[in-house]
Structures are given as C-alpha cells and as structure tokens.
Amino acid sequence: FIPEAEASGLIVPLGNWVLEEAATTLHRWQNDPACTPWATKLTMAVNVSARQFREADFIGRIESLIARVGIDAFSLELELTESILLQDAHETEQRLRLLGDLGVRLAIDDFGTGYSNLGYLKKLPIQKLKVDQSFVRGLPEDEGDRAIVGAVISMGHALRIEVVAEGVETLAQKELLQQMGCDQFQGFLCAPGL
C-alpha cells in the first residue's frame, strides 16, 4: 500500500501519524519504571518517505514533536532511503543539517540499492548505514554478497558510521556479520514476523 499512499499523497498524514505514535511510545517506555533500566538508552527508528521529507513544514514538525512529546532528540532516528538523497542535493543537505543540529539521528535505509554519489556520506550528518537485505540474503555462501557487505562495513567504519545488516534470518549470517565487524543486525533471527 506504500506506493499507493505515496502516489495519492496519503503518505504524508500516515507518516505524521507514525512519527507521533513512535515518539509517544518512546516517551511512555522511557518513563515506565518497568522499562527504565533499558529504555533510557533506546533509540526509536522511524522510516520517512521521500514525499514526507520534502514537505515544507517537515523540520518544524519534527522539532515540535520532540518538544511536545518530551523526548530527547538523539533518541529519535529517521531512516531515509538513498532516493531522498538523489533529489535536490542542496535542499536535502540543508534539511539533513537542520535535523542533525536538532540532535536527531539519521540512518540511510536499504544502503547499496540506489545510484547515489557516495560523497554524501562524508558531507552529511549520517550516523548509520543499513545494508539492504538483498546483500545479506546470500550470506555466508555468496562471494559477491560477502564482498559488498564487507566493503560497506569497512567504508562505514572508516567514516565513523555505524553499520546495520537488514534481513538477518540465520545464525550463520549473524556469525559471519559479527566476524566482519558489523555493528548491529535486524531481521527474523532476532524478531520473527507475526
């Protein structure tokens, strides 16, 4: 339904609702005595669509949300696709810098599937790269996937950017990623689908 929501413009109110729910949930967890020991270090990651990101009031909406809900900006992580970075480079850079100045963490989702210039990695306040599951799926057997994932991990670390592997489903994938120095993983191995 995401492409339909993008095309119709419904992605903007839907995305705003998701941001609101995520921030409210984060605040509740951080202030729940049962969760407090671990929740204070928790980061809530939220995917942002290209259309939502381009909205004129997006930065103000994020700033207002942080203040109104009462969360620390650094506990909110916005996941952006490389396609966002391909659009109006100057405007995108300004927006990302403003978000970074607020303290919001920024992650590039599905890294390696776009056609963007890697120069943005050294210029923009990006804290995390998420290696797309299409490269993780072939691990540990596929040499090409091993080479790509290893290169992304090395590049990320050289730029002081955390690297997360998406779509980890097997213990063998997780073990290889750990050996390669990948910082984090996500996927059905740690949280099976419902």
Describe this structure in words.
The protein has eleven helices and six strands. The mean pLDDT is about 90. It has about 190 residues and is an alpha/beta fold.
Mean pLDDT: 91
Largest sheet: 6 strands, parallel
Element-by-element helix/strand order: HHHEHHEHHEHEHHEHE
Look at the helices and sheets and give the structural class.
alpha/beta
Unreliably modeled segments: none
Number of helices: 11
Kindly list the characteristics that best describe this protein.
single chain; 194 residues; 52% helix; six-stranded parallel beta sheet; globular; 11 helices; alpha/beta
Secondary structure topology:
Blueprint: H1 2-8, H2 11-30, H3 36-39, E1 44-47, H4 50-54, H5 58-69, E2 76-81, H6 82-86, H7 89-102, E3 105-111, H8 120-123, E4 128-131, H9 133-136, H10 143-158, E5 162-165, H11 171-180, E6 184-185
Parallel strand pairs: 1-2, 2-3, 3-4, 4-5, 5-6
Helix pairs in contact: 2-5
How would you briefly describe this protein structure?
With 194 residues, the chain is α/β, with parallel strands linked by helices. Helix content is 52%, strand content 14%. It has a six-stranded parallel beta sheet with strand order 1-2-3-4-5-6.
